Amino acid sequence: MTSTYSLAVVAGDGIGPEVTDQALKVLDVVAQGSGLTFDRTAYDLGARRWHATGETLPDTVLEEIRGHDAILLGAVGDPSVPSGVLERGLLLRLRFELDHYVNLRPSKLFPGVPTPLADPGEIDFVVVREGTEGPYVGNGGAIRVGTPHEVATEVSLNTAFGVERVVRDAFARAQARPRRKLTLVHKNNVLVHAGHLWSRTVEAVGAEFPDVTVDYLHVDAATIFLATDPGRFDVIVTDNLFGDILTDLAAAITGGIGLAASGNVNPDRTSPSMFEPVHGSAPDIAGQSKADPTAAILSAGLLLEHLGHAAEAQRITAAVEADIAARDGQPRSTQEVGEAIAERVATEVPVA
Amino acid sequence: MTSTYSLAVVAGDGIGPEVTDQALKVLDVVAQGSGLTFDRTAYDLGARRWHATGETLPDTVLEEIRGHDAILLGAVGDPSVPSGVLERGLLLRLRFELDHYVNLRPSKLFPGVPTPLADPGEIDFVVVREGTEGPYVGNGGAIRVGTPHEVATEVSLNTAFGVERVVRDAFARAQARPRRKLTLVHKNNVLVHAGHLWSRTVEAVGAEFPDVTVDYLHVDAATIFLATDPGRFDVIVTDNLFGDILTDLAAAITGGIGLAASGNVNPDRTSPSMFEPVHGSAPDIAGQSKADPTAAILSAGLLLEHLGHAAEAQRITAAVEADIAARDGQPRSTQEVGEAIAERVATEVPVA
Ligand SMILES: CC(C)[C@H](C(=O)O)[C@@H](O)C(=O)O
Ligand SMILES: CC(C)[C@H](C(=O)O)[C@@H](O)C(=O)O
Q: A334-348 pLDDT, tens per residue?
């Protein structure tokens, strides 16, 4: 069987293009010999385009992207652009317009990876971060800006529809994992309206998944456990903002954001899902070939998995694991890391 | 000179009364011989009262409390009470009504304290968490509750008045510390209206404090640095919710919430400030004399400092440091820890 996929590539800003190049290289190696073809269309979006044209994501481009099977994204954001313009106008617009309601962020401590924790134990959990609601909806505003009477608001919007679908997805993922454990993270003792909607929804949907053990943590307590007992987590389901915060911390304890992959998934497949490293555009090291492309490469693995090619995805994970185990602390360029992983994918026989 | 202070004591729920007892014991020892007297009024507020009367914080009680010089609080919240009722109705009501706009949370890694970090370095920073605005205002609601069409909102309210006063307080604190560094933590690339108000305010107020170095971190990145390089922080100023999250993580890396003290401060002294451990009511270990009262004791130290008795506060800190250095991992009861620290305060000559 051969399959041809159309891939929209948004390399973006800063280190985005550098790490995306390596992810595409690895994807090509996997594709070869497995009957997969990825037809790529590169979209020039991000700081350069905004400076040149004032555009972040024109409607016509969004519609073109929508026609693809999947999206590979590098990173978005640049200090030369006012904070929020590209994040809201490009990255979040893609997530919202394409209804990426499952923002999937696995955290696994690979053997040999340096972690800031003295006694990390086994870390292997996945955060299912809601991707289309919460404080990220962009439903805020301000009056009397720049005066002593300025008032600025941010509204967190949460719907039964939106919470239930992501909670159900998280339960299904928990059900499919050996430990079958789901932790809801929120702040339902303060954000009572949103929090109680989440708690009630987890309780209700949980009835359909009697095998899954459920617990609840306030977001502040969850950060404590991520530092002191990360092994307690299996699947975390949480709101958009809490998920943002927890997954950076989760990345930090599992070797850093250089390794953290993510998928912005539309499980209903009504639009293409988008895969990107958790890290940002890192303008301080952009163009120096210093960025670790591993997170971008692992994100390409998540993309393969989403498209139904679990064995091919596993080849990437195995190659990354092997590469990490062989790391000796010597600095390597972005290309060198990408090539080393591509080489392993090409030559190593996958363990089934 | 002798000074008499009136102290409102809200021991609260769970381990609250146990740890508060020890804090009061230590406070009494400090008071003896230093010419200080603390007249105490205990307020029976929390789960018991709510079950008995349905009251969280009656207006008349609030007015009585308002007449005191300071408040010592244990912990609030119990699983037998719907989540949010006591937190919003009692704890947050006190913080808001008494205009505790500076929620002060120092984080210091004392020698000998176990930390989950492999290489913590020197940790000594203070979080100035805004206490009267942001997503904590209770300005949310819900429609069609319990139906598939439920919509729940939470509104973060931020005013120039509210942000400026806490930012100015944080700058003054940074100015008074050796490193003179202030880090604003927010999420101004997503919560653009609130975030830009914070960023502009820090820039404007910063002009009055030319000696203070300023930087900015997104909240997600801040959690990474707390895990990988906590020594980079000196003073953090941040919003109410981000401060809640960061200070639990900060507590985790500096020995746990058993050691983390806090002050809900009204710097204008138009109402009494309130001092409490960062930890919650920990119902799972309540009544078992297992709780560590150190955080409550250190909070009494912050209370002394706020009332202008820095030398007496220092006696508490020194006694706690000495007690911690002598800990050998053997479990001690809440009383034993309290007595050991009280004993040290009574006998050790303070290093000036
Ligand atoms: C760049 C930013 C808008 C984004 C987010 O907040 O979601 C990033 O932090 C992430 O986690 O993907
Ligand atoms: C109990 C809760 C309302 C409170 C808060 O969120 O502020 C607590 O977590 C804290 O940090 O003091």
A: 999 999 999 999 998
